[in-house]
Specification:
This protein is mostly helical and about 55 residues long. The protein has a domain of about 30 residues. Helices cover about 70% and strands about 0% of the residues. The radius of gyration is 21 Å and the shape is elongated. The protein starts with a helix and ends in a 7-residue tail after the last helix. The model has no long low-confidence stretch (mean pLDDT about 90).
Length: about 55
């Protein structure tokens, strides 16, 4: 039996793609909000981290 046949037997399986799309969209929106609200000072600090020799 093919994998698709197993999925057809699950009741309410059609909701799973919608839930995964909503989770992905919510996370993408949160990342965009974080990036927009990050200050320039924080960005410069993160940018210089690989060059920092304080360790």
């Amino acid at each position: 039996m093919k994998f698709v046949n197993y999925l057809e037997r699950i009741t309410g399986v059609g909701i799973y793609p919608m839930i995964s799309l909503l989770i992905f969209t919510a996370l993408a929106v949160l990342v965009v909000i974080y990036v927009v609200h990050t200050s320039d000072e924080t960005v410069n600090e993160m940018k210089n981290l690989p060059l920092d020799n304080d360790n």
